[in-house]
Design brief:
The complex is a heterodimer of chains A (449) and B (213). Chain A has 449 residues and is an alpha+beta fold. Chain A is built from eleven helices and 18 strands. In chain A, α5 packs across α6. Chain B starts with a helix and ends with a helix. Classes of the chains: A alpha+beta (449), B mainly alpha (213).
Chain lengths: 449, 213
């Protein structure tokens, strides 16, 4: 009986509503709104839909590309006694007869260097008059010379052996000389002994030592403006043992790292006074070059918060306004940050950084509370995968990293997120502060051969 | 304008011709609005939902199978966007004291003389969750299991919401009956109906189309 009554009620509405006597009249305002939607779609290319995904892929691709680009060349392992010279080819220093001529003028040193390697040895040329014609001709080159033995190493500068300065002619410009000197005994004088002579006139040319550096493995002589250079290298002792040398240009090589972090945080609207505890789990990819680190990644964040209904924005007309809103948001946070290293000693490193985050709201649950004990309106509201806020949150962080070993570092990172725009369906200014803890793994270690 | 003319309009819409889009919009405005009004609380909401529906139509018209009735396809889209709107807004109906409705005498409700506007206003006065379930079950003919799947609720919740919706509607009908059957209170709420759908030639053509499909 009751079922029949219900069916009667249903039929009443079904028949009554199925065939409206008078349909709703067309309103131009509705079409105008429709046109706006269509125009908006025209202006907005389809690629914008994929923008958050594309930007993530692009960021990763960029970092990977940078990694590949700055990845060091094949690591050079020199056998003892082997001299390798890498230089830009110039007509002068590629000629065999030129070598012979130089050998004749520079004495034992050049001959020795030439003997030690069949390759050209511009290090010798740089300090010999015969080589000066390169400079006169405006040619420049960069040489890397690796000398296996201490004795041969000293032989790269014939004048050094004799204790007399070797002088390059007057306009020997733009010469950069790098000598990679690898000996079994780093303490031998060949690596470190350097005498810089005062400017002196030889053959009527005023010579000035502008810069003369011989470091552990690399020696650079820059005689860009004035003729060079007098080096005095104390003859070293003979090496007791010989080890292969690994040449690395780590100073200019970017470090790539992959990080995993988890954090608990406080979330609040407008301020953190009425904050609730949330958390997130983040994967991070970073590139460090010198003191700067650029990082990106993604974190899954749970951000609950309480706020007054005054901060809650909606087009929905509540029958009676709630007094408070309790929200729980789950979102993807895609940051793009840059950090600057302010301290780095004893395996401890501090960086300060900033950047922008994009929020992709996965789920937003809102619960409404009312003044009375009895709800006088909707009690909850859920939005799923609808709202996105691109680059609208400022990240501020301080990162402490303690290197556990050469590959792994412990991270502790206090951070603060300040919204530049209203976020989510409720359009609130959601602030977040927390501390992330995690690990950083150096990816460069996997590239060594 | 017959079926061929409708398909011509559709082809124009696929080419993103604004004139064709407007003509199609005007032709099916009343039909679409009728569906959206049932699922929403007022005309403004209905217009918003309807436009979202037409937006889907204009952007997915390539997927329409011309062998099937366009009106049915359009109606299904309007219903789906109405459900999407429901999902995107309040999912849970607020609890109301329905004790009074429970004790109402059923009476002979089918004898009541209620017109379209009266019934529509009653449905619109229902809370969102009740209204959606009532529409899907009583008017559009879906089962509780189907409704549960569509609204991401349990079948029990669907039954419960339907029951509450019916009780509220009965209450409204009886209240309307006691106040002299004068429950046409829609005009103050922005409801504006005309017996003439449109005056342009396009709309006259549209009226023909509606009869044909």
């Amino acid at each position: 009986m009751k079922k029949e009554k219900d069916e009667g009620l249903d039929d009443l509405f079904k028949k009554g509503l199925a065939d409206p006597v008078s349909e709703a009249a067309f309103r131009d305002a509705d079409w105008d709104a429709m046109e706006q939607m269509l125009d908006k779609r025209k202006r907005r290319p389809a690629i914008l839909y994929w923008l958050p995904y594309l930007s993530g892929v692009a960021a990763l691709a960029l970092l990977f590309l940078g990694w590949m680009l700055f990845k060091p060349d094949a690591v050079k392992v020199q056998k003892p006694g082997q001299v390798a010279a890498i230089q830009k080819p110039t007509p002068a220093n590629t000629k065999t007869d030129q070598q012979k001529e130089n050998t004749g003028t520079s004495g034992g040193h050049t001959r020795q260097a030439a003997d030690s390697s069949k390759q050209n040895n511009p290090a010798a040329y740089a300090n010999t008059p015969g080589d000066s014609k390169h400079g006169r001709n405006g040619k420049s080159f960069f040489n890397t010379l690796s000398v296996g033995g201490a004795r041969r190493g000293t032989g790269t500068h014939a004048a050094d052996l004799s204790g007399k300065p070797a002088v390059a002619p007057a306009d020997n410009t733009q010469q950069n000389l790098a000598v990679a000197n690898n000996t079994a005994q780093p303490n031998t004088a060949v690596n470190s002994t350097l005498a810089t002579n005062a400017p002196q006139k030889i053959n009527g040319v005023d010579t000035t030592v502008k810069q003369n550096v011989i470091a552990n493995n690399v020696s650079k002589v820059d005689s860009s403006a004035n003729p060079t250079v007098a080096n005095t290298v104390t003859p070293p002792t003979a090496p007791k043992s010989k080890k292969p040398a690994i040449k690395s240009g780590s100073s200019n090589r970017p470090q790539f790292a992959f990080g995993v972090l988890a954090s608990s945080n406080l979330n609040g609207v407008g301020s953190l006074q009425e904050s609730k505890l949330g958390g997130n789990f983040a994967l991070r990819f970073s590139m460090t070059l010198s003191k700067w680190t650029v990082s990106t990644g993604a974190s899954y964040a749970i951000a609950p918060y309480n706020t007054s209904f005054n901060n809650y924005h909606t087009n929905y007309q509540f029958p009676a306004n709630p007094t408070g809103v309790s929200a729980n948001c789950r979102m993807l946070d895609i940051p793009l940050n840059i950090n600057y290293q302010v301290y780095n000693k004893h395996n401890n490193k501090f960086t300060v950084g900033s950047g922008l985050s994009s929020y992709i709201m996965l789920r937003e649950d809102y619960n409404f509370s009312y003044a009375g004990s009895y709800p006088t309106g909707p009690t909850s509201y859920s939005v799923i995968n609808k709202n996105r806020n691109f680059l609208s949150i400022v990240n501020l962080d301080v990162t402490y990293e303690h290197r556990i070993n050469s590959n792994v570092g412990l991270l502790i990172e206090p951070y603060y997120k300040i919204p530049l725009a209203d976020v989510g369906a409720s359009q609130v200014r959601l602030q977040t502060a927390g501390v992330a803890v995690g690990f950083n793994v150096n990816l460069n270690s996997f590239t060594k051969h | 304008m017959g079926e061929e003319e409708l398909h011509q309009l559709i082809r124009g819409c696929i080419k993103q011709e604004r004139g064709s889009q407007k003509a199609l919009y005007k032709v099916f405005y009343g039909f679409s609005m009728g569906i959206c009004l049932r699922y929403t609380g007022n005309r403004e909401e209905a217009a918003e939902v309807m436009n979202q529906g037409f937006f889907k139509v204009f952007t997915h018209l390539e997927s329409y199978d011309p062998a099937r009735p366009f009106k049915a396809w359009l109606g299904k889209i309007m219903m789906n966007v109405s459900i999407d709107y429901y999902r995107a807004n309040l999912k849970m109906a607020y609890t109301e004291d329905l004790d009074k409705a429970e004790h109402l005498s059923d009476g002979d409700l089918t004898d009541k003389k209620l017109n379209y506007d009266d019934l529509l206003k009653m449905v619109q006065k229902l809370p969102n969750a009740y209204r959606t379930v009532f529409n899907l079950f009583a008017i559009d003919g879906y089962s509780h299991d189907e409704i549960a799947a569509m609204l991401n609720i349990t079948s029990g919740t669907s039954k419960s919401n339907l029951h509450k919706a019916r009780q509220k509607l009965k209450q409204m009908i009886l209240e309307a009956d006691s106040s002299g059957n004068n429950i046409n209170y829609g005009k103050s709420n922005g409801m504006d109906y005309s017996s003439i759908v449109a005056i342009s030639s396009t709309d006259r053509q549209g009226a023909t189309i509606r009869k044909n499909i």
